[in-house]
Amino acid sequence: MLEFILASLAVFLVFGYFGLAIGWWTLAAAALLSYLSIALAFGPVTNVVLAGVFIAVAAVLNVPWLRRKLITERILAVYRRILPDMSQTEKEAIDAGTVWWDGDLFSGAPRWEKLLEVPQPRLSAEEQAFLDGPVEELCAMCDDWEVTHERLDLSPQAWQYVKDKGFLGMIIPKQYGGLGFGAFAHSAVVQKLATRSSTAAISVMVPNSLGPGELLLHYGTDEQKNHYLPRLAKGLEIPCFALTSPEAGSDAASIPDYGVVCRGTWQGKEVLGMRVTWDKRYITLGPIATLLGLAFRLYDPEGLIGDEKDLGITCALVPTNTPGVNIGRRHMPLNAAFQNGPNSGKDVFMPLDWIIGGRDYAGKGWMMLMGCLAAGRAISLPTSAVGGAKALVRFVGAYARVRTQFKTPIGRLEGVEEALGRIAAHCYMMDATRILTAGAVDRGEKPAVLSAIAKYHMTERARQCVNDGMDIVGGKGICLGPNNWIGRGYQLSPVAITVEGANILTRTLIIFGQGAIRCHPYVLREMRAAKEMQGVEASREFDDAFTSHVSHVLRNGIRAFAYGIAPSLAPAARSASPDTKHYYRHVSRLSAAFAFLADISMIAMGGALKRKEKISGRLGDVLSMMYLVSATLKRYEDQGRIQADLPLVRWSVRDALHRAQEAMEGILSNFPAKSVATLLRWAIFPAGKRLRPPLDSRNRECARIALEPGASRERLTAGMYHPRGDDATAVLEAAFQAAVACEPIDKKLREAQKKGVSDPQSILTAEELSAWQRKEALRKQVIKVDDFPQDFGRAALVLGEQTKIAAKAA
Ligand SMILES: Cc1cc2nc3c(=O)[nH]c(=O)nc-3n(C[C@H](O)[C@H](O)[C@H](O)COP(=O)(O)OP(=O)(O)OC[C@H]3O[C@@H](n4cnc5c(N)ncnc54)[C@H](O)[C@@H]3O)c2cc1C
Question: From atom 24 of ligand 1, which residue's Cα is the shortest distance away?
Answer without folding.
Answer: 249
